[in-house]
């Protein structure tokens, strides 16, 4: 997807709507993580120096983030970005799988319960039949028990990743603050201190 | 469903700036017209992918009808936003641009892409939003309840009331609670994203970064615990730090590992009134433990009833709660502890905390909650669970208020010999 590069932007409106600008605007995809764009189909404006966060994904309910890659990205920042991206993908995969499996098994449970009672899936009005909460509770318990080890290992790894990411963010923030304070600039100039 | 989802994710600011977004949409339409073929190729693919997912029911997120989340004091205020779905204002075609033809010619893919683009936000701190963000991060309503129970503990202590210590204890407890809640949300981002009750929390929405949340937690916790330790007494400081640890490092991870989390959580809830008492007296008296026991027991009808109607979300999110894994235990424990409250109220005069009127005046409300707990135990349905939960919300403040009014007035030693029949106020 190729667009031509555009000129200076009104920074205020850039925050409101990413592609509010001129026709023929470029979004140099090279600067964004390509695999991410494939998943989301959205590309922020070229001049935006922030990361962008999107609506909850339909499958995993997690919000995708498109990371801004600054010029002269330090190795530390690159490590952080890769870790965050990787964690996001890993989490997304886990939850997509989880939610899909849950829905599928729930449907199967409902179907099997209804058929054991001799009822059809839809009642006379054409509406789907639902089970009572007690009947569903059997399924919920079963689902939890079946997936206990998987959940536990996801949990452990999530805590480790979350902690590492936060530490890295702290290091990057301190590093950038130090560089700004000692008068070293990056090139395009990153904002001082924390960029959320 | 799509409109509903969009309504939820669109910020109110966007609605307020309808004209601005209207303009952006116009330029988007122009953009789409010019680069239509390019947009279709790429966006269309993503859109088709989404359509495929939507149409194959197996991949759908939710098979059954969505359940109304039970409103609770633990809810984030933003949950109310979910219910107020705002429709995106209808686009008016601008005269001059061939928008109508574009609308017809504009494929679903581009329109979907445009609507999706609106929902993307910059990951940037909006400083004007920060107070609200911090309030939600620290679960301000829950924190307020915690501070109230600590204040009740302070007020129930049989010592002269010291406003300075009271203020410092309250502020310290407030800060400690903010810390604990922030760290809890920091740990639980992907799980909160997947539960209806919690999906609008600040970290889930990316309003602040994880680092920011941790910094806020430290900025609250360190002064909070220090204030409690130095400004009140070391015992209270220790209890505050212990509570933060229990909540963040025991309760939060345990939620996904074992049903024991509910008991740990009940201890966490019991500690603030104990802290209030120790802030006043400086020692861990039986009276403090009695107040803690009230909170501990109350926690079970409260939480078990709440979790009863959230079983699907807990199961899908991987939370191990009694209501899901051991339903009969859940109901039994709720009943047991509701009845236990009656017994604990009777201990009030025994331990010299309250007068004998307390067990009598608190009997009606204790009997009522026990009755609801019994109904819940017997029927185990959503209605009774909800009733029990809502009853627990007013039962606790009422119980503490009654205890306060029935507080045992202690006669100072020197007056005891002179006029034992006219006890002076301890306050």
3D structure, described in words:
The complex is a heterodimer of chains A (196) and B (427). With 196 residues, chain A is mainly α. Chain A has one domain. In chain A, 53% of the residues lie in helices and 2% in strands. Chain A has helices spanning 11-16, 34-40, 75-117, 133-146, 148-181, and strands at residues 52-53, 65-66. A two-stranded antiparallel ribbon of chain A has the order 1-2. In chain A, helix 3 (75-117) packs across helix 4 and helix 3 runs antiparallel to helix 5. Chain B is mainly alpha-helical. Among the domains of chain B are: 122-283, UbiA prenyltransferase (Tetracycline Repressor, domain 2); 285-411, Four Helix Bundle (Hemerythrin (Met), subunit A) (Up-down Bundle). In chain B, 72% of the residues lie in helices and 0% in strands. Chain B has 23 helices and one strand. In chain B, helix 10 packs antiparallel against helix 13 (210-232) and helix 16 (286-308) packs antiparallel against helix 22 (382-405). At the A-B interface, helix 1, strand 1, strand 2, helix 3 and helix 4 of A face helix 3, helix 4, helix 7, strand 1 and helix 11 of B.
Main traits of this protein?
heterodimer; A: 196 residues; mainly alpha; 2 strands; 53% helix; elongated; B: 427 residues; heme biosynthesis (chain B); transmembrane helix (chain B); UbiA_sf (chain B); EC 2.5.1.- (chain B)
What's the total helix number of chain A? Answer: 5
Q: Are there runs of chain A of 5+ residues with pLDDT below 50, and where?
A: 1-35, 188-196
Query: Any idea of the CATH topology of the domain at 122-283 in chain B?
Result: Tetracycline Repressor, domain 2
> Of all protein chain pairs, which has the greatest interface, and how many residues does each chain bring to it?
A-B, 76 and 77 residues
Based on secondary structure, the structural category of chain B is: mainly alpha
Strand and helix order of chain A: HHEEHHH
- Return the CATH architecture of the domain at 122-283 in chain B: Orthogonal Bundle
Oligomer: heterodimer
Query: Reading side by side through the largest sheet of chain A, how are the strands ordered?
Result: 1-2
Which class best fits the helix and strand makeup of chain A? mainly alpha
Would you identify the CATH H-level superfamily of the domain at 122-283 in chain B?
Answer: UbiA prenyltransferase
What low-confidence regions of chain B span 5 or more consecutive residues with pLDDT below 50?
34-39, 55-101
Tell me the helix content of chain A.
40-55%
Q: Give the amount of beta strand of chain B, in percent.
A: under 5%
Q: Which descriptor suits the 3D outline of chain B?
A: globular
| Cα Rg of chain A | 23 Å
Total count of domains of chain A: 1
Q: Mind summarizing the main beta sheet of chain A?
A: 2 strands, antiparallel
**Residues in helices of chain B, as a percent range:** over 70%
Rg over alpha carbons of chain B: 27 Å
């Amino acid at each position: 997807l190729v667009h031509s590069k555009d000129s200076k932007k009104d920074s205020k409106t850039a925050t409101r709507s990413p592609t509010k600008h001129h026709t023929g605007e470029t979004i140099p995809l090279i600067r964004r993580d390509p695999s991410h764009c494939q998943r989301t189909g959205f590309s922020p404006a070229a001049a935006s120096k922030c990361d962008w966060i999107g609506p909850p994904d339909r499958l995993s309910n997690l919000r995708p983030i498109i990371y801004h890659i600054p010029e002269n990205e330090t190795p530390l920042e690159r490590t952080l970005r890769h870790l965050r991206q990787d964690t996001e993908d890993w989490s997304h995969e886990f939850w997509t799988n989880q939610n899909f499996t849950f829905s599928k098994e729930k449907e199967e449970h409902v179907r099997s319960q209804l058929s054991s009672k001799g009822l059809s899936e839809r009642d006379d009005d054409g509406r789907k039949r639902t089970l009572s909460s007690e009947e569903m509770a059997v399924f919920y318990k079963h689902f939890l028990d079946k997936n206990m080890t998987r959940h536990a290992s996801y949990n452990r790894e999530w805590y480790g990743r979350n902690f590492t990411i936060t530490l890295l963010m702290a290091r990057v923030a301190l590093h950038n603050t130090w560089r700004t304070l000692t008068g070293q600039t990056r090139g395009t100039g990153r904002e001082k201190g924390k960029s959320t | 469903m799509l409109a509903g989802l969009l309504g939820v994710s669109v910020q109110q600011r966007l609605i307020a700036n309808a004209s601005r977004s209207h303009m952006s949409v116009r330029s988007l339409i122009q953009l789409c017209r010019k680069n239509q073929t390019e947009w279709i190729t790429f966006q269309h693919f993503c859109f088709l992918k989404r359509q495929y997912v939507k149409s194959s029911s197996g991949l759908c997120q939710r098979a059954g009808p969505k359940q109304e989340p039970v409103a609770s004091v633990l809810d984030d205020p933003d949950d109310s936003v979910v219910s107020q779905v705002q429709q995106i204002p209808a686009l008016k075609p601008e005269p001059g641009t061939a928008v109508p033809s574009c609308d017809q010619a504009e494929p679903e893919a581009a329109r979907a892409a445009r609507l999706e683009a609106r929902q993307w936000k910059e990951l940037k701190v909006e400083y004007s939003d920060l107070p609200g963000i911090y309030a939600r991060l620290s679960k301000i309503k829950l924190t307020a309840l915690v501070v109230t129970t600590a204040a009740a503990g302070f007020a129930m202590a049989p010592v002269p009331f010291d406003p300075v210590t009271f203020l410092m204890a309250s502020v310290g407890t407030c800060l400690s609670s903010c810390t604990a809640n922030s760290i809890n949300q920091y740990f639980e981002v992907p799980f909160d994203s997947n539960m209806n009750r919690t999906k609008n929390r600040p970290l889930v929405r990316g309003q602040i970064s994880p680092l920011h949340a941790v910094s806020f937690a430290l900025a609250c916790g360190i002064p909070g615990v220090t204030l409690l330790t130095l400004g009140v007494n070391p015992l209270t400081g220790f209890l505050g730090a212990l509570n933060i640890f229990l909540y963040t490092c025991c309760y939060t991870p345990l939620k996904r590992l074992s049903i024991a989390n509910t008991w740990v959580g009940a201890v966490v809830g019991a500690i603030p009134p104990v802290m209030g008492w120790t802030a006043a007296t400086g020692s861990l008296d039986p009276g403090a433990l009695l107040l803690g026991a009230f909170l501990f027991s109350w926690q079970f009808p409260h939480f078990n009833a709440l979790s009863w109607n959230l079983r699907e979300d807990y199961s899908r999110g991987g939370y191990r709660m009694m209501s899901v894994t051991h339903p009969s235990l859940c109901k039994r424990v709720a009943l047991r502890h509701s009845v236990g409250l009656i017994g604990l109220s009777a201990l009030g005069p025994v331990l010299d905390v309250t007068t004998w009127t307390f067990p009598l005046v608190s009997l009606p409300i204790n009997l009522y909650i026990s009755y609801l707990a019994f109904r819940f135990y017997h029927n185990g349905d959503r209605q009774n669970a909800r009733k029990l939960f809502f009853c627990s919300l007013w039962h606790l403040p009422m119980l503490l208020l009654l205890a306060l009014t029935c507080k045992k007035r202690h006669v100072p030693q020197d007056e005891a010999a002179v006029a034992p029949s006219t006890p002076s106020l301890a306050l």
